[in-house]
Amino acid sequence: MKETIKSWILALLVCGSLVESYYLIYRLPGSDSAVMSEKLYVKTDNMGPEEKVENLLYPDKMIIHMGEDKHTLFYPGSTFYDLIMNRLKGRGFESFQRRSVQDFDWDKIRSENSGIELSFGAGIPVTLLQRVMQLAPDSLFQGESIDRIWIYNIKNDSKAHAVFFSTRGDIVYEAAKADLTVQDVQQHVDFGMNWTPYTAVNGDYYVPEEKISLVEVEIPSGMYTIEQMQNNLFFDAGSTRYIPEKDGSKIYTDSKRSLQVDQEQNWMSYSDPAALPAGESTPAKDALEAVDFVNKHGGWNGTYRLASTEEGNQERTVSFQQYYGSYPIMSKPKLQYGVINLELQQGTVSSYERSLMYTEEGKAVKQVVELPGGDELRAKLAQFSEASPVKDLTPAYVASVNGEKLKLLPVWRVTLRDGTFLTLN
């Protein structure tokens, strides 16, 4: 009997020791690194949902050419923009022929022929464009990046034409086979017949002949905490140490990676200079890697568009532009907001920057305001063009903080040929 009791007591002691060891190893603060590898990293405190790269690839504007030098513009999220894009995604383009951009009279095509022009801003790699359009490129075309697609009809020609513009500026690729009829293109063009008329200026940008309406928005906002970002970015947040900076920003590091937080601008910069290279680097692969990184380290707190994949000396910067409704959000000098930037070296993310602000869209207060058009707008643009010619004009929002609220003010964003951005409202 005594031996049985001793056996039970011994068994209980062993079980208690195992339970205590479990809590010591797995539950003490700072001990996670003992059992977590990078592959087993668990996401916490997400700033938003994950996103598919296909949902980040779309034109920043759609220009409808109606012949007789009549034009109008549709922007992302508007009814006709979405309708036309959804139809184009289902059509095939193949047998691409490489030609010089000077082989075409673009001023004549723009003014005389009906067509649809899709603008992709700084450009999108063809291998990514294939994810949202049915393209059958050859090896030469597949290595390009495209900043415009122009689909148009020519009078007395029985087939529709589709031309893809290389970001290099001197080369275009014309699809000898396009799964679009002349009637298809004309039907899409007809959607713009009763819309706001725009006038082309030097073939560079378009001025609306009427005022355009946007909503001015004020949204309750907050800021993600430093602790939340540490949990998102460090494999063992408990092992980080704080390094004060003279400019008021805060830096946290685990000796390999660093997180710098500027609380005045609600902005974070994460750096991982020791990240191991993944191998081959291309604009498309880096963009995919950047999307995957954001999915795993915060998510998407709103609507974004792939804005650029800019190559530097030893790195590539991938930028995502945030939108409110149909239009991009611009930062102010004292408030960085509306973009996510990542730097990649040899296919691996080495730097990650974004705003720490979040908003409560369901509590937004909106009012309709108007931006100038016609001669009033042209007169203001003439003042800007004295310094440098205007290259692009688009409605946008400027972000500002008013107490615990984020305010989005509608403006015209003016891009000059020297790369300068200006605003007017």
From TrEMBL:
Domain Regulatory protein YycH: 3-416
Domain of life, per lineage: Bacteria
Designated name of the protein: Regulatory protein YycH domain-containing protein
Species classification: Bacteria, Bacillati, Bacillota, Bacilli, Bacillales
InterPro entries, alphabetized: YycH (IPR009996), YycH/YycI_2 (IPR042274)
Cross-referenced Pfam families: YycH
